[in-house]
Amino acid sequence: MGTLTIRQLDERTHARLRGRAAKHGRSVEAEVRAILDAAVDLPEQNFLLALQAAVSEVGGVDLDLPERSEPPQPVEFS
Hints:
Elements: H1 11-24, H2 28-39, H3 47-57
C-alpha cells in the first residue's frame, strides 16, 4: 500500500476536509482515501458484498444444494 504526503495544503481546504470527514463519521485520512478512490472510480465495496446487497434487496436467492455422497478429500500438492 502506498503513502501520499500532501504539502502546502490550504488551511481552508483542510478545514473543509475535517468537516466533511466529521459528517461521514471518519478521520480526515479516511475521508481523503474515499475521495481519491471515488476520483479514480474504485468501488467503495467489495464486489461480492455489493452483489449480496443487490440480491438481498429483491428477497435473496434460494439455491438447491446437492447432498454430499463422499466426505471431503485432502488435496495433494505433489
